[in-house]
Hints:
Helix content is about 45%, strand content about 15%. The two termini are about 35 Å apart. The strands form four sheets. It has a six-stranded antiparallel β-sheet with strand order 1-2-3-6-4-5, sandwiched between helices. It has a five-stranded parallel β-sheet with strand order 12-13-11-14-15, with helices on both faces. Strands 7-10 form a two-stranded antiparallel sheet. It folds into three domains: about 5-115, Phosphorylase Kinase, domain 1, CATH 3.30.200; about 125-335, Aminoglycoside phosphotransferase (APH), C-terminal lobe (Aminoglycoside 3'-phosphotransferase, Chain: A, domain 2); about 340-515, Rossmann fold (3-Layer(aba) Sandwich). The protein is of the alpha/beta class. The protein is elongated and about 90 Å long.
Amino acid sequence: MIIYNQKDIVEALLNPKLYPAKWNVKEVRIHQSHIAILFLAGDYVFKLKRAVLMPDIDFSTPAKRRLACVQEMKRSTVYAPNLVLGVRSVRRLPNGRICIGGQAGQEIDTLLVMKRIPEANILGNILPNENFGRFEAMDLGEQLAELHSKAKPFRTKWGVSVVQKIILETERVLSCFSPMLFDREKLDTLMQGMLKSVGENSRLLALRSKSGHVKKCHGDLLLSNIAKEGSKYLFFSPVEYDDHAECIDTLYDLSYLLMDFEIRGMRKLSNILFNHYLAYMNDVEGYPLLHLYQSMRAAERAAVCAKRSVMLEGQEKKEAAQKAKTYFKMACHFMTSYPPVLIACGGLSGSGKSRVAREIGGCLNPAPGAVILRDDIVKKQINGCPIDQHFDKAFDTPIVEKVVYDVLRQEAKIALSSGCAVIVDALFYDENERRLIEELARELGVAFVPLWMDAPFDVRLERVKSRKRNPSDVRTQEDLEKQLTLETGVVTWPKIITDKTREETLQNALEILNKTCPMPILKIE
């Protein structure tokens, strides 16, 4: 609900002459959301909070809007250092004219002043893009994991009641636009599915804060709020108006980003980002919540676009309404159940098993694709070794190896039980370990797809020598030759010779997968 019409302020801020001459403003462009209006003026951005009163947002008075600007400025120092330059008052002079800053006249509003980020640097403007690939997705996941690791944990800010409140508030907004934008029956089904999931995961939701996974997060991790500067990312415009929107589960924060990748048709990169993030966060327990969280985020976005459509006119109104429908469809998609599948990618180092796992991981439902569990990463996690550092070979013993495979099966069981597709990427040279992973699939009643990768020694050697950002410590000819003494026994798993092109190797793997896998691949109805 709009409390105060800011039309006169908007008209004034659209005038380049309003801005000080030193800022050299020649033109002012405007960008609007349901809670803010951005004025793009030269090298700067001036952000005006809308005078709105909503269940979760109260910007109804000038004082509250000023406080929101100050809070966003403080939070931005964490996520986008040096981006926010300060706050400036909007004042009405005695002659009725509106100006920025100074002491004369009455203060009627507040602006957040920021450096203007080149539009070509904002991910929301450029993705999908062929220049944003695997390593860029890894960088993004890694830097977000670092922020989440450093964030302050909260012990009492999350749980069943909070999540139910978010869902019900979203339903209330969506209901206001039914049946105009959202089918009532589908809306009811969606909300019932969400609430059912909350009930099924009530114990886990309660444990998230106790286990330190509820933290002060960004809260609005859309690609339109992320900018790339070299290999670094700026996470700008963090939520500043509500504890329940910023003191959240770290996976709930991540889910907004994963949802945005999914809606842009970037599942492969979303899967890479997701698994790289989890390698650093080691958050196995949260798997069962991921589909619920992504659906909630898409539904929230549908509500935001629906509300925004009311504030716009003409073509912009139609576009906002269409976006609302698309996000709603995506919310329903995330709550769709798929039969879990367990895929085991085995083979000696350099055989291409990790590449195959990465390539097919993004082809599987549900979003964001398969949980990829890798022996090299688990070994470092359980021994407290950072995944980007070498593991001390003195501790690389048969006992450690056994623990690694035990943990791989345990984590696979958790993910499969929550409806995820799982790929276990490991050597699997031992017949007993191959037998145990097959037994896990039978125990859980899920489809099992084994794959055994191989390639000529010279091909494997070239691969391990040229590895980049790979958690494996096998990098030399000596390391590879040691594996030649391993007793693999009789390998009955379907074999893929990976010395062909990436496309041919992937096609061979998908052919085997399609014979066994009970789920559709990347098909959103």
